[in-house]
Write a structure and sequence with these properties.
Length: 84
């Protein structure tokens, strides 16, 4: 953009919520080369009711109410990321 230096980089972070039934979900978070990059705690591959409720109740609300206003920054939540 007009010859300016880039001041940000994508880390490859991705999140895959996997439903496993019985109102339980695994939150699989990783970055490039399939390296774990977990937001909440280490070992998020255990099915969990809390992740199910987040996917069902919290994530849709954030998607429709907070993201369109530009106040949501992904895994940093409400903290605007700093770039190098």
């Amino acid at each position: 953009m007009e010859g300016q230096k880039l001041n940000a980089a994508y880390t490859g972070y991705n999140s895959c919520p996997l439903f496993v039934g019985d109102k339980k979900l695994m939150m699989i978070e990783f970055k490039y080369d399939n390296l774990p990059n977990e937001t909440f705690y280490s070992g998020q591959t255990t099915p969990n009711w809390m992740f199910y409720m987040m996917k069902k109740e919290v994530f849709p609300w954030v998607y429709f109410n907070v993201m369109p206003t530009g106040r949501w920054f992904g895994r940093d939540m409400f903290s605007k990321p700093t770039y190098f």
